[in-house]
Amino acid sequence: MITLLTQTAIAVLNDIADPFSPNRSKQFTIGSEEFSKLLLKLESGNIICRKSPECPPQALASYKLTRPKDSITLLDVLEATGEHLNCNRPTSEELYNRFCKVAPRLGVLNQVTRTYLSQIKLTDF
Predict the structure, then answer these.
(1) 3-class SS letters over the chain
(2) From its phi and psi, is residue 30 left (phi > 0), alpha (psi between -120 and 50) or beta?
(3) pLDDT (tens digit, 9 = 90+) per residue, 63-97?
């Protein structure tokens, strides 16, 4: 339901918020160019900013959150990255294992979206 890039963005934001925690973003394998683009999108979306202009733009340690972590939403991340929710299939067990705290809400959202989409007929257009 949540794309790999969105999952990576969430991990990156958690790593920036708590630099002494295990590097969550290391578990996602995206290329260095895509990683740099992700940081730029999060910066352009006003979710992160560099600590100073001299900080290297590729290093997570160069960034800080622009507001408290508990005020950044999934919608903020989706808008900043230009990503979407993938409701093309039922919510996977992997999502529940990885995001046990929010998975029930995402699962409900996924099912409701799928239900409404299934009620829109081609003849309705």
Answers:
(1) CECHHHHHHHHHHHHHHCCCCCCHHHHCCCCHHHHHHHHHHHHHCCCEEECCCCCCCCCHHHEEECCCHHHCCHHHHHHHHCCCECCCCCCCHHHHHHCCCCHHHHHHHHHHHHHHHHCCCHHHC
(2) beta
(3) 999 999 999 999 999 999 999 888 888 888 888 88
Q: What is the pTM of this model?
A: 0.83
Beta bridge partners of 63: 50
70-to-21, 46, 113, 124 alpha-carbon distances in Å: 17, 15, 26, 40
